[in-house]
Amino acid sequence: MTVSRVLRGTDGFSEETRERVLAEVNRLGYLPNRLAAAFGSKEASTLVGVCVPSFSDPYFSKVLESVDRTFLRLGYQTLIGSHNWQHDDEETWLRSLLSWRPAGVLLSTKHHSQGTLEYLRDATIPIVEFWDLNTSPLDLSVGFNQSDSGFEMGRYAISRGRRKPGILGAVRDRKTGGPERFTGFSQAIEEAGQTVLTKEILNDTPGFYSGYYGTETLLNRLPDLDMIYFQDDTMALGGMAWLQRKGIRVPDDIAVAGWGGHEAASIMSRQLTTTSVPTEQIGKLSAELLVRRLRDEPADDVNAVPTRLIPGETL
Amino acid sequence: MTVSRVLRGTDGFSEETRERVLAEVNRLGYLPNRLAAAFGSKEASTLVGVCVPSFSDPYFSKVLESVDRTFLRLGYQTLIGSHNWQHDDEETWLRSLLSWRPAGVLLSTKHHSQGTLEYLRDATIPIVEFWDLNTSPLDLSVGFNQSDSGFEMGRYAISRGRRKPGILGAVRDRKTGGPERFTGFSQAIEEAGQTVLTKEILNDTPGFYSGYYGTETLLNRLPDLDMIYFQDDTMALGGMAWLQRKGIRVPDDIAVAGWGGHEAASIMSRQLTTTSVPTEQIGKLSAELLVRRLRDEPADDVNAVPTRLIPGETL
DNA sequence: TTGAAAGCGCTAACAA
DNA sequence: TTGTTAGCGCTTTCAA
User: How far apart are CA A245 and CA A252, in angstroms?
Assistant: First the structure.
């Protein structure tokens, strides 16, 4: 019992005892059994679950990196899961997670299956929904508004004199909020009395390649577009590669905007105009808020971490 | 006790009992406590630890994705860690992991601190070292040989008629085996009776930008290089951007090779000659082998998963 | 095929 | 300041 007290740092022992304990611990190479600790006391679990859509998605892997670093610093261990945008997979993972009696759970996005909601209700542990901001969260929410992100770009496009914008997206595999951004973008354009001339959503994976051939399709149909708002940076880069090949000048002949603040966006000869997502901050804040709740410290329910438009040379 | 038997699927109950149990379980919404199970029985832990250098590194995030998917399928839960190439961070993480009495552990790379080795020795759990192949592994090893990877590219360069190759790398932040690849590359060149004219290792982060200006530096000094072997694809893409800007033709004036099988590498106007890394396979095999060992099934110690040279249009 | 007893290593509560 | 007791929910072992 005394050893337990010393190692946990709860008070009730003399300095001399402490030193004797630590010396023995060191001599024996004693490693506490956290399984027993977490099992014996509901308070002692330092396991937290984090579920992201995909580990190899560049955005979510950044968030995960930041989440894990923060939890490590605060003394928690991260159990991971991924759901590939399948609500059922999230539910399956959650069930498995809860059997470990975690201290809390972090979920990406704000949409969940019915079963997930029931599990969460019964578990009575802190929950953070991150990425998309949920203004009426299950518990805590950290993120941004996709629609605002698109709206901001739409207004910027107008301010830069663009009047005939088009939209290019792709839906397969990932759903990083493209549709909502496009809606926000269109609203901004319409509020300025203009219209989005075309909105092409490819049934393909968003990426360099779909951006490349999608741009070709779009411009063959509507050669006088003066801007394309791409679903993300990789598509925008693909589009720019096609434009460059055709000798179409950016932004003189046509402007280009992406989304995401992709590392590679700074790679082109012309810096891409895009929107950067505060992945690190979302991760850090999500983890910190969960811990605040665990410690019964005050924590805001809804935490907006806005995206930021990064003006480049392409719009 | 009967419930425990039914839920674990060990035999010793009638079909009728089974159904009664499952009905009750369902009615009560009973969720087993794996903490108690793992605590009560050394065999029952399905926690496994995985430590990678970084979650946002595109290669390791792919491996992690594959590892987690495989473990999920086999009924294990993944506790993660990252060490940013700091051996001490790996040791700290491992200590924390072991306090959860995991069933096994996956470590990236083959170099570990003294403390790590001692912990692993005492833990007597299966260990997989993945990424670099360790031919005298602690327990199991899955990966490839960096040097062979470079050697293969060197021989290919020779076979394509290149005689005056240079090397361009960068060391800061990451250590994905660049130096070993360069050694292998140089060996192949020398075996063919040629020499690598220059080897420039920038004190910078490998990436598009360092590839861009590094190429400029290299060619200003040695204008008659007929090939550059880059540390990775992002550097190669940066180099190609510079060459294109200068009107230097690839591969007519100079050939380019990268490493890594970067997504964007397959889409540039000229497909990059590179080496692809079997990240998915490394992850899958690592997880599967760990489980084989846990189940006392036969498993090879040393498992080579070679990289593969992808001929493109740049060499 | 089912059940009873003991114990895993810790912590909460209480006693000294 | 230190120690004792009981119990967390499982699994292992042994008995019925």
Answer: 15
Q: A273 forms bridges with which residues in the sheet?
A: A257
A226: three-class secondary structure by DSSP: coil
Residues B176 and B246 in one domain: yes
Does A267 lie in the same domain as A191? yes
Q: Which nucleotide is nearest to A12 (CA to C1')?
A: D1
Answer yes or no: do B57 and B136 share one domain: yes
Total domains, chain A: 3
Among the partner-chain residues B77, B238, B241, the one whose CB lies closest to the CB of A100 is: B77
Q: Are residues B65 and B18 in the same domain?
A: no
Is A313 part of a structural domain of the chain? no
Q: What is the pTM of this model?
A: 0.94
- In a domain? residue A95: yes
Q: Output DSSP code: residue A260.
A: B
Q: Which CATH number covers residue A234?
A: 3.40.50.2300
Low-confidence ranges of chain A (pLDDT < 50): none
Domain that holds residue A19: 1-32
Rounded to the nearest angstrom, the minimum Cα separation between A179 and chain B is 24
Residue in B closest to A53 by C-alpha: B65
Determine the pLDDT at residue B261. 86
Residues B264 and B286 in one domain: no
Answer yes or no: do A196 and A294 share one domain: no
- Check residue B247 and report its DSSP letter: T
Instruction: Show Cβ contacts of residue A107 under 8 Å, excluding neighbours closer than 6 positions.
Output: A51, A90, A127, A128, A129, A130
Q: Which residues of chain B have pLDDT under 50?
A: none
Q: Which of residues 22-51 of B touch A (CB under 8 A)?
A: 29, 31-36, 38-39, 45
CB distance from B80 to chain A under 8 Å?
yes
Residue of B nearest to A52 (CA): B65
Identify the pLDDT of residue B293: 96
Which residue type does B30 have?
Answer: Y
Q: Which tens digit of pLDDT belongs to each residue from B236-250?
A: 988 998 998 899 999
The answer on B57 and B128 residing in a single domain is: yes
B37 Cβ contacts chain D strand, under 7 Å: yes
Residue that has been written with the tokens 């990059």 in this structure: B272
Contacts of B35 in chain A (CB under 8 A): 35, 38-39, 45, 100-101
For chain D, which bases have at least one atom within 7 A of a protein Cβ? 1-5, 7-13
Q: Are residues B183 and B133 in the same domain?
A: no
A103 CA to C5 C1' distance (Å): 32
A256 within 8 A of A272, measured Cβ to Cβ: yes
Q: Does strand C come within 7 Å of the CB of B14?
A: yes
* Omega before A251 within 30 of 0, i.e. cis: yes
Instruction: Identify nearest nucleotide to residue B14 by CA to C1′ distance.
Output: C1
